[in-house]
């Protein structure tokens, strides 16, 4: 069963023209003052959104909010046609868990135990676990989805390799394959280009383009304005609140970027904007 | 001096030493390591009793072997320190039990090794514990600030031009010596209570790490005395009573912290 | 030699009490192969140790109040309560390692105090701590099997979630697994294993059943699914050999070894043998890798990558 069919069964709207994700003046909070607020954006199937802002501007927070790991505290938030704002915390948890079946999430690169006895293929299969439920073991459809995800990220030749032996960039792409294996309609990527070499970066860009043609909506947080121009249709500039949001060409202007990053560190020549690079964390 | 007075002195000395060294253990997050060490002294003590040599000596020798084995396993890939501690810990108990069974003729109070019997400590036990306490105090007076520095910021410590291994060794020696000498009071199983509880209680209430080194030994000594007296009054085993009193101090410390208007604890928590 | 093999390791098991002991340990071996491997992958050794201590007062109070039947009830109740409390404590982040150690030695102390009020304190404490493997009844055996089965089913039902969480806790949560539910099921299963194993190998030796099988498996293989059968097989082998040795020594040499402790010592010795073998193999492999670098200069990384072997941390070339 695809994610779409599941959403239909759960009562979600599957009208192709309806946005996958819709926020109106939304705020997200860890408890206490909102960590980000004033976010308004519609994301449709096959569209890619770049989240751009300085370190600590709330890019990861927004992604976690969309995932339902932290609550929406104001405004309106709809995902897959289901309203997610104004719920009790119990309702919100249930709704978030349901919607996570349609969301693939690639967290910021993590310290995973390099000695963990697991192959790349098995890691990708974990993307299918949630839908399996108790006592059920992966079947033919699951294995096919894993193979397909590995082909999509261009790592099928490494399927049997132990995960810890892959290079950092390959691990990153492997985790992306895990996010894809569940057949998501929405993909959330948190700084996926951090520390990637050119070859892995190119492979990732190719994968994102391919996913868009398949109708997957993508939201990617990044410092890479070049990437935003190359792949993304929409840019959302963020600095604790939404600074600007719209078509890439309209939003990536000097005043907007300076408003998000402050004057310092923004260097401009005739046609390019440069923002301070990510310093690690 | 009667056995009860001797037990009280032992309780004070061992409690104070455990509190001091426990502060190092807790700050360095080596509680599971210390626990494995305490448990693993058990076969050493059994072997010493069988061979007729001094029990602290046997436990000390066993500790050295055990630290070596844990260091070896901890270095092996895919094993690590937790596995090392777990295996050594359970192996220690099994070995102790087997050793005892191999010599059925020698009467050994196996429980006294496990949960302590402070009412039957000898003068030499107390003297040994006092020496360990004295050495610990001296070592902390001389190297205390380096030890704390290294505990909190290993990279900074190395960057400041110090060598790390002497500090590691010092911590190891102090922990081992205390574990060995605390056996008569609280035994192999409960020693960790007397090491962890006073220090953890001190960490909760102390305004700075330096104060932990003052508060923890006081709590440790108090746990010892109160435990011995209570066990006599209630006619129950002394070791568990001491461990429970120490745990009680920890709970008390948590309660004290939860009370917001405690005046003497100034400006520690902003959040 | 052949005589000893038969008279130590085959014939004794026709005796009912030896067969019961072996049956009990084999049930434990199966469950140790699953739960123990998860304990290893999650790094839950310290929590497991804590649980063994926490269960003790339940065993003691149950024993004092209701004899052997009471022991089981008391132990199960305490084990489940301790497992839930421990899970909530560690999850909320208020509890450090020190706090866990304090709370659980506190529990243990209560157990000792309860037993110490009994008249023949010494002998009973000994039996509770080191087990009484050779005097188990049929009822004991079936209770152990039942407890093991419950623990096994609980972990097997949630195995994908447990593995995902062990590998990547944040990722599993983001994909919709409930961490608290996973942890509760796992710690309760560990607690049930602790109860099941306590009457066999004794409370102090239970940790061996939880820690060693996973550790042996990790030394032997890097394939995930092989860990489980290898862990179970190692435990089963140690159970059989350990019981045989205990029996043989007592018959031939008149020394009665405590059965539980003998089995655990056998298991630890097996671990030691595997560990030394692993180190030896790795050393040879490292030498070969270094030589390979000198001879060919390339292709070394692939050769090592496809191997199924590990080495000492930081040794040459293996991390290529």
UniProtKB/TrEMBL annotation, chain B:
The keyword Protease does not apply. Keywords: Membrane, Transmembrane, Transmembrane helix, Transport. It is found in: Cell membrane; Membrane. The keyword Lyase does not apply. The chain crosses the membrane at residues 6-27, 48-71, 83-102, 114-143, 169-199, 211-230, 236-256. SUPFAM superfamilies: ABC transporter involved in vitamin B12 uptake, BtuC. It holds the Pfam family ABC-3. One of its GO terms (biological process) is transmembrane transport. InterPro entries: ABC_BtuC-like (IPR037294), ABC_TroCD (IPR001626). GO terms for cellular component: ATP-binding cassette (ABC) transporter complex. Its main location: membrane. It is a multi-pass membrane protein. Belongs to the ABC-3 integral membrane protein family. This is Metal ABC transporter permease. The lineage of its organism: Bacteria, Bacillati, Actinomycetota, Actinomycetes, Micrococcales.
TrEMBL record, chain C:
Keywords: Membrane, Transmembrane, Transmembrane helix, Transport. Its main location: membrane. It comes from the Bacteria. GO terms for biological process: response to zinc ion; transmembrane transport. GO terms for cellular component: ATP-binding cassette (ABC) transporter complex. Belongs to the ABC-3 integral membrane protein family. This is Metal ABC transporter permease.
